[in-house]
TrEMBL record, chains A, B:
<keyword id="KW-0804">Transcription</keyword>
<dbReference type="GO" id="GO:0008483">
    <property type="term" value="F:transaminase activity"/>
</dbReference>
<dbReference type="InterPro" id="IPR015422">
    <property type="entry name" value="PyrdxlP-dep_Trfase_small"/>
</dbReference>
<dbReference type="InterPro" id="IPR036390">
    <property type="entry name" value="WH_DNA-bd_sf"/>
</dbReference>
<keyword id="KW-0663">Pyridoxal phosphate</keyword>
<comment type="similarity">
    <text>In the C-terminal section; belongs to the class-I pyridoxal-phosphate-dependent aminotransferase family.</text>
</comment>
<keyword id="KW-0808">Transferase</keyword>
<keyword id="KW-0238">DNA-binding</keyword>
<dbReference type="Pfam" id="PF00392">
    <property type="entry name" value="GntR"/>
</dbReference>
<keyword id="KW-0805">Transcription regulation</keyword>
<dbReference type="InterPro" id="IPR004839">
    <property type="entry name" value="Aminotransferase_I/II_large"/>
</dbReference>
<protein>
    <submittedName>
        <fullName>PLP-dependent aminotransferase family protein</fullName>
    </submittedName>
</protein>
<keyword id="KW-0032">Aminotransferase</keyword>
<dbReference type="Pfam" id="PF00155">
    <property type="entry name" value="Aminotran_1_2"/>
</dbReference>
<dbReference type="InterPro" id="IPR036388">
    <property type="entry name" value="WH-like_DNA-bd_sf"/>
</dbReference>
<dbReference type="InterPro" id="IPR051446">
    <property type="entry name" value="HTH_trans_reg/aminotransferase"/>
</dbReference>
<dbReference type="InterPro" id="IPR000524">
    <property type="entry name" value="Tscrpt_reg_HTH_GntR"/>
</dbReference>
C-alpha cells in the first residue's frame, strides 16, 4: 500500500514513538489519503517503515481501534472504517475500492508489481532490470546535448501529432542505415516502445483479434493486448527464431496479427536468421498477415550486427516497425518510434493526441541532438564494449557456480541470459528466497506458463562484482532446494 | 493525408517537374508508406505541397494511372491500387484500411483534426490555441533550470511508478499553499492532465458509467470517456458554476462520477463560487459521488485568485484533483499530476506502468527544479501580468468590432472569452471562411451541440496586433453572413 521510503520517527520528540505512529496514521486517514475501506499495511510493513518494534506498532493500532478509526484482526486485514469526519457527520464516503476493482484494465500480475517495487531497492542485486547500468550514462554528454538543443528551442508548445519534426528527420536518416526507407511522415514518435504497442492495441485491433507470437515472449508479461480483449496464440520457435510454417494453421478467421522480436529476443536472446526472416515475410504476404516487429535491442550486439530488419525487406507496407531509445540510451527519456504505412501512422497519431497530446518535447529535442551530433553513435560503441565485458563476466560466473545444475544460451547481443534450472526445484521458492537474500531476477513464468523452470538474468545493470555475487547466491539457494 | 512540410521540386533537375512528382509518389508507394488502398492527396493538395500548377499534377497522376499503380477519378477519390511488387508478384497486401477502421478508439472529430492541422500553420492568426505565447517562454530560465538539474541526474532510468520523488515532494509543498494536504504517496505524475483523464477512464470506471458534467465543457471535445463506453449527463450551470441541486436527479443507478472545471472553466471562463463549492461537496457526500476536479487554469488569475479547490475541503477522499504545467509553463513538458486517495493512486500508477512506463524523467527533473528554484512562482507572476494586458486588448477589440452583434463574458482568469454571436448566421460557414482568411478560432459546437452560436476565443497565444486583426476579420465575416 505504501512506498518504501523510510519515515524515521524522532527519538527526541516529546511524543512517545507509538504516539508518533498514531499521529502519522491519523493524518493519512483525516486527509483522505487513506479513505474508508482501505487496507492498512501489515504490522511487519509498518515496523519496517518506521524502523520500530512490532510491539510499538501494535500499541498504536490498538489506540486507533479504540477510537473507532480502524477495525479488523491485527495484521493483514486491518481496515480504515471511519474517519474523524464520518464519526462526526455520519455520512458514507465513496467506495473507492469498488472503483478500483471495476476499471477496464487488469492490474499487473502481482509478481510484476512485487518486482516493480523491489527494483527501486538499492540493497538488492538487480539481475532483473532490462536497463543499462548508470555507469554507462554520460552526464557530460547530457550536458552537451542539452546545451546545444536549448539553443534551438524557442518554446515548448504542443507538438504536431506525429512528434518533433527534427527528430523524425534524424530518425529517417538513422533508419536508412539499417535498410529502412521511410520519410518523416511515416514515423510516429511514441513515449517508449510500450506505448507503440498500446496504440496498436487500441487503434488498429478489434476485440477478439488474435496475436500470433513467440512463446515465451516479453508480450506475455504485459496486459496491454488482453486488456483490450485480444487473444494470444503461440508459434513454435527454434534457435533460428519463430517457425513460419506454423502460421497458416494458427491464423484465426477473425483479425490476426503477428508480434515478433527478431533481434535478441526478450527473454530468450534468440536472433532470427536471415533465411527465417525471408520465409516469415513470404508467408505473411501470402496469408495477408500484418507484422509488428519489435526491434528495441537491435543495436546492442556483441560481435556482429543482426540481419537487417524485416521492415527493410517489406515491399507492401506489411510491417509496423518499433524502436526505442530506452535500451540503448536511457529509458527515462521515454522516446521510441513506430514506422508504418502513412494511413496507419496518421490514425495512431490521432489516437496519441487523444491519449496524451504527444511525448515530452524536451526529451524529443534531446534525442534529436544526440543523433545529429554523432554522440549517439559514439555512445553505442561504448555500450557494446561494456556489454561484452558484462556478458563474459556473467557467463564465467554461470560456469563456475551453476555448471551441471543449469543450462543457458550464449547470447549474441541484448541484455539477457535465459537460464534453465535442471533439478525440479520449486521456482517460486527460489524467487522468494533469492529476494529475501537480496537478489532479484525475473522468473520465466512471467513470459510463459510453460517456462517455470527458467529464469531471465540481466547482465546490463548490476556491477561486475554484484553479477558474480548474485549468481553465487542463486546457486547456493538452488543447491539447498534440491 | 500528408503533413504540410513543403517539398520544393528542383527546377534545375534534368527531370521535368511532372516526372519529379511521379518519382516522389512512386517512392511512397514502393516503400509501403502509401500501401494499397490508401487515398492520395487531392490535386489541390499536391499542387500546394510541391508549389506547382495543377496541370503538372494531373500529368503525373495520368502517368501513374497508365502504369496501373493508381486508380479512380482524379481528385479526392484517387487510390493506390497496386505497387510495383504486387504487379510483379500478384499477391495482396494486408488491408490496413480495415484495421484503421476497427480499432477501439474513435477518431477525433474531423473538425478537431482540421484544427490540429491548422494550428501548426504559421500564417494563421491563432485565436484557438489554449497555450501561452512563446514570448512568455524564457529560454534563459530553461537554461538555468536544466543546468541545475543535470547536476542532480546520475542516470535517466525507468522511474518508480508514481513518478520522480523530488518532483512529488515539490508538488506536495506547492499543493499545501492552495490548501491541499497530501504526501508524495498520494500524488501520481502524469503526462499532462489529459493522461490523468485517460487513466481514470480505463482504470476506475466501468463501461456504461455516467459522467455528470457542466455543459458546455472541454470534456465534450474529447473522446476519452466515450471511447471507453461511458455516457455523459449534463448538469445545469449559471454564472456561479454548476448547480448542485441537479445532481440527485441526474445520478444514475450504475456507477456515476462528476467532472468539473471549477476555476476558469474551459470554455466558459466561469469561476465556481465559494458557496457553490461547499454545496457541491455536500451534495456529493450525501449522494456518495466521487468528483474529478480539473484545475489546470487555477494559477492564471487576473486580479484575485479563485476560491480554494474543492480538494482543499475534501474530508473523505472524495475528490480526484488534476493539475498540469501545460497552461502555466509549457505543454511540451507533458507534466501534470493527479492527487487522490492512496489506493486509487496506487491503482492508477500500476496502469500507467502498463501504458507507458511513466513520464519523461528529463521533463520531471526540469519541473522539479522550476518549482524548487522559485523560478516557477516568479514566472507565474510574469504570466499573470502579461495575460492581463492580452485580455484587455481582446476585450477592447471585441467592443470596437463586435458590439451589438455579439455578447461575451469578462473572464477573471484563464485563457478564453466565450463569445455568443447574436444574428443567426451559419456558424460552420463562419469557421471555414475565417480559416480561409487566416483566422482560427474554436467553434462552440465542439463543447456542446447546444452552443452552435458560440465561439471560444483565446487571448493567450496570438500577438496583440494579431488579436485585434483577428477579431476585426471575424467581425467583417459575421457582417457579410448576416
Ligand atoms: C521487447 C521489448 N519491447 C518493448 C519494451 C519497452 O521499452 P520502452 O521503454 O521503449 O517502452 C521492452 C522493455 O522492457 C522490451 O523488452
Ligand atoms: C480543462 C482542461 N483540462 C485538461 C487539459 C489538458 O491539458 P494537458 O496539456 O495538461 O494534458 C486542457 C487543455 O486543453 C484543458 O483545457
Amino acid at each position: 500500500m505504501m512506498e518504501k521510503e523510510n519515515r524515521k520517527l524522532s527519538k527526541s520528540s516529546h511524543l512517545p514513538l507509538y504516539q508518533q505512529v498514531v499521529v502519522y496514521i491519523k493524518n493519512k486517514i483525516i486527509s483522505g489519503e487513506w479513505p474508508i475501506g482501505s487496507k492498512l499495511p501489515t504490522q511487519r510493513e509498518f515496523a519496517k517503515l518506521f524502523g520500530v518494534n512490532r510491539s510499538t506498532v501494535v500499541t498504536a493500532l490498538e489506540e486507533l481501534k479504540a477510537e473507532g478509526l480502524i477495525e479488523g484482526k491485527m495484521g493483514a486485514s486491518t481496515k480504515v472504517v471511519n474517519n474523524t469526519w464520518t464519526l462526526l457527520a455520519n455520512t458514507a464516503p465513496p467506495d473507492w475500492n469498488k472503483f478500483v476493482k471495476t476499471g477496464f484494465y487488469k492490474p499487473n500480475q502481482s509478481i510484476v508489481q512485487e518486482i516493480n517495487k523491489a527494483e527501486s531497492d538499492l540493497n538488492i542485486i538487480q539481475l532483473g532490470k532490462g536497463e543499462l547500468s548508470s555507469e554507462l550514462f554520460s552526464v557530460e554528454n547530457l550536458h552537451t546535448v542539452m546545451h546545444r538543443c536549448i539553443n534551438r528551442i524557442d518554446s515548448l508548445g504542443y507538438e504536431v501529432p506525429k512528434g518533433l519534426l527534427p527528430l523524425r528527420q534524424e530518425l529517417s536518416k538513422y533508419l536508412s542505415t539499417i535498410g529502412i526507407t521511410c520519410s518523416p511522415d511515416s514515423i510516429l514518435i511514441v513515449s517508449g516502445a510500450l506505448q507503440a504497442l498500446q496504440l496498436i492495441s487500441v487503434g488498429l485491433l478489434r476485440q477478439g483479434s488474435t496475436i500470433l507470437l513467440e512463446e515465451p515472449s516479453y508480450l506475455y508479461s504485459l496486459h496491454i493486448f488482453q486488456s483490450a480483449g485480444m487473444k494470444f496464440s503461440s508459434l513454435s520457435v527454434d534457435n533460428q527464431g519463430l517457425i513460419p510454417s506454423d502460421i497458416a494453421t494458427k491464423k484465426q478467421r477473425n483479425q490476426s496479427i503477428i508480434y515478433t522480436i527478431p533481434s535478441f529476443h526478450n527473454p530468450t536472446g534468440i536472433v532470427m536468421s536471415e533465411k527465417r526472416r525471408k520465409d516469415l515475410l513470404q508467408v505473411c504476404e501470402k496469408e495477408n498477415l500484418p507484422i509488428i516487429e519489435d526491434d528495441v535491442y537491435r543495436e546492442l550486439w556483441i560481435d556482429t550486427a543482426p540481419p537487417l530488419p524485416l521492415k527493410a525487406k517489406d515491399r507492401h507496407g506489411q510491417v509496423l516497425y518499433i524502436g526505442s531509445f530506452s535500451k540503448t540510451l536511457s529509458p527515462g527519456l521515454r522516446v521510441g518510434w513506430l514506422v508504418g504505412p502513412e494511413p496507419v501512422i496518421n490514425r495512431l497519431a490521432d489516437i496519441k493526441m487523444q491519449i496524451d497530446y504527444g511525448s515530452s518535447s524536451l526529451s524529443q529535442w534531446a534525442v534529436a541532438e544526440w543523433l545529429s551530433s554523432g554522440l549517439y553513435a559514439q555512445h553505442l560503441r561504448a555500450v557494446r564494449g561494456n556489454l561484452t565485458i558484462r556478458l563474459h563476466t556473467m557467463l564465467e560466473a554461470l560456469e563456475k557456480y551453476l555448471q551441471g545444475i543449469a543450462t543457458w544460451n550464449i547470447p549474441k547481443g541484448g541484455f539477457f541470459i535465459w537460464v534453465k534450472i535442471l533439478p525440479a526445484i520449486p521456482m517460486q521458492k527460489l524467487f522468494e528466497t533469492a529476494l529475501d537474500e537480496g537478489v532479484l531476477f525475473y522468473p520465466g513464468s512471467i513470459y510463459s506458463s510453460a517456462c517455470t523452470q527458467y529464469l531471465r538474468l540481466s547482465y546490463s545493470y548490476a556491477s561486475l562484482s554484484d553479477i558474480k555475487q548474485g549468481i553465487y547466491r542463486i546457486s547456493q539457494i538452488v543447491k539447498k532446494l534440491m
